[in-house]
Amino acid sequence: MNYFKSILLTAFALFALASCDTDDLRDDVDNLKDRVSSLEAQVNLLNDNMTAIKRLLEGGQSITNVNEVSGTYTLTLSDGSTIKLTQGSEGTVKIPEITVNTDGQWEVEGVVLTQNGTPVQAVGTPGTDGITPKFQITKDGSFWQVSYDDGATWEYVKNEKGEKVSAVSSGEGGSTDTFFESAKVEGDFFVIKLTSESEPISIPIVKDVICKIVEPTKGFKNGVWEIGYGKTATTEIEIKGENIIANGPAGWTVSVSIDKSTNKATLSVTAPANAATFTRATADNSCEVTVQANTNASWAVAKIQVKAIEIIDSYYELYNSGGIIEINGIKIQKDGTNGYGEATLLTSESESKEITKEGIYFVKSDIEVTYTAKSSIKSLILIGDNSTQKSKCVLNNPISINGQDNIQELVVINMDIDGGNLDNYISAIVGTLKNIIFINNNIFINEGRNLINCTLADKDNVTNQILLSQNRIKIKANTNWKATRILSFTVKPTNNNITFTDNIVYAAATTETNATNGCVLFASGKDLPNNITISNNTFINFISNSQPLVIGILNGNIHYSNLLFYYNYANNDSKAHPATLLNAGGGNGICAFDKIIRYDKSDNDTYKTTLKLFSGTVPNSYSGDNVFIPNERQNPFDDGIFDLDKGIFIPSAEYAQYGASIN
Questions:
Q1: Same domain, 299 and 401
Q2: pLDDT at residue 276, as a whole number
Q3: Boundary (domain end) residue, out of 204, 227, 259
Q4: Residues 272 and 330 in one domain
Q5: C-alpha torsion sign, points 458, 498, 520, 472
Q6: Please, which residues bridge with residue 533 across strands?
Q7: Does residue 661 lie in a domain region?
Q8: Sheet containing 63-69: which strands, arranged edge to edge?
Q9: Quick check: 502 and 473 in contact, CB under 8 A?
Q10: Residue-range definition of the domain harbouring residue 242
Q11: How far, in Å, CA of 399 to CA of 567, rounded?
Q12: What pTM was estimated for this model as a whole?
């Protein structure tokens, strides 16, 4: 059997746009759109075929079925997954050649592709997976570029002379983007004859070896099976073969059992007892479980990512027994010098299910409590009792906190907070607090309102930190374009840190095209804190136009990274253009922008929502330009999940590094 040696790249020819009248111009513009669409289709085809070829090279899977329709071959593998190989079409491009050398390394134009000086492997080596390069053509259509990190960064493809590899044909004669001359089933093999290769690739077809792990019904998020420390979880597997082997990471227990009466198989996985077991020598908390089946020399392999997490059946019992609930350096404990004292557990049997005064409350997940305090309280800690199930709290009044001695806090964890009854903000801070913490909550805010509203006299509102992480913030947007803020300060927020990470913020309405005029941190004319982090958040129709995403006097540091902005504001007006990330208020602090993408789904090109870095004056400390974030060519949620009703937004694998991971 011959290894894959070469495949062909595709490109396009640029053409000049020239016309004598409006009709000619319109025809040329339409022709340009068609050619651009064709180019995108060819590049996507190239990358899909590269992925398919790599999958076939990896081994560990047999082909169980082959189906061909109009030049596209759908191959079903023994783990139940499918890959596609597609014949190309005639073109007029200059075609470089990609090969895999005898060492299993990718080559382009005779040059081994390298990443940081290391050859890029097509065929994995022990302990290291192979890499599938991704290709694109420069915006001016001149040269090929390659990415080794799924499109996060790009570099030019160069030939043996160190010259950029052109994507433009000389125009003499035709060329083709076909990847193979022929494909057919010969006996027990699927045989592919690649273009410019003298010998074919033969891949075995074995229908009696199957190994497929069925997606777990519980604890499976974003492709990872989360299992509590010391707990066992199970899922079905479809398996067929003479020998079955199951392996897990160090410290994990993995087994496969088969019920002969039903012929059904079960995969059981037990996580290590606790986090203390995790040392490099003994265990990993996030890794792979592998199941293998074989018949003779044919093997089928299925893998699933697993992660050990802390599952707390009752935070109240943990707290009462002397345990510590630790959050980003904050320790919530009952006893000791910094103890919080007695707590209240609200259950279905509680005489009252109302919160009327300050304190620390744990809420069972099977009840709904209400917050009814009419006046300010000093401090509030509100925690959903079971870490895997959120507890609901309906707000009949805003949570007004009037801390007085810098030790009070507002901490909300694992709750479903419903602010739909409020005509104002969710929480008002009218005194000095030590911390404001919101973690792992669902929060509903009426349009035009704020999550946290701070109106203290001219001194710091929060002395330690403000942290919002893993929250799903739903904003009513039925009337469209109401100004809504997550954090709103009329004074300096804090000297220290504000962290806004791994959150989903979305405008929810009867129509997907309604939007919120949104701001994460509003402190116009006031000093911003020393450090601000805005990272790994997903924003859906949360458009920062008249108020930037962050506004205030920047003299410290702010870092934006791994952000996903999705827009579908279809109204024919210009008030959403452009959205901006920062108004530094004339300050000269340090700002950084990394891995930010924007996608505008609107079909109205005139009124598409743009996004640029700054409104107002660009800080002198920033060496770059005030650039616009380019619109992504494809919807990040294609092949992912976009569910406005449930607030679930999972991008495709290609965009997995952007946005929140809490789904």
A1: no
A2: 38
A3: 204
A4: no
A5: negative
A6: 499, 559
A7: no
A8: 63-69, 72-77, 82-86
A9: no
A10: 210-309
A11: 32
A12: 0.68
CB crowding 320-330: b at 16 or more within 10 Å, else e: eeeeebeeeeb
User: For the chain, what is the domain count?
Assistant: 4
* Domain shared by 600 and 578, yes or no: yes
Let me know whether 225 and 360 are in one domain.
no
Q: What is the 3-state secondary structure (H, E, C) of 79-128?
A: CCCEEEEECCCEECCCCCEEEECCCCEEEECCEECEECCEECECCCECCE
Among 309, 328, 353, the domain boundary falls at: 309
pLDDT at 589 (0 to 100) = 93
- Check pLDDT > 70 for residue 54: no
Across 15-44, average pLDDT: 43
pLDDT of the residue at 186: 78
Show the tokens assigned to 592. 């950084």
Contacts of 627 (CB under 8 A, 6+ apart): 612, 613
Nearest Cα neighbor of 313 from 369, 229, 394 is 229
> What DSSP letter does each residue of 194-223 carry, written as one string?
ETT-SS-EEEEB-TT-EEEEPPPSSSEETT
Asked if the model's pLDDT at residue 460 lies above 70, the reply is: no
Same domain, 141 and 121: yes
In a domain, 382, yes or no: yes
Between CA 356 and CA 375 the distance in angstroms is 9
Residue in 24, 84, 87 with CA at minimum distance from that of residue 55 = 84
341-380 pLDDT per residue, tens: 999 999 999 999 999 999 999 999 999 999 999 889 999 9
Residue 125 has pLDDT above 60, yes or no: no
Q: Please check whether residues 263 and 317 belong to one and the same domain.
A: no
Residue 90 pLDDT class (50, 70, 90 cuts) = very low
CATH assignment at residue 301: 2.60.40.10
pLDDT of residue 554: 94
Nearest of 29, 591, 79, 584 to residue 290 by alpha carbon: 79
Q: Which residues pair with 233 in a beta bridge?
A: 269
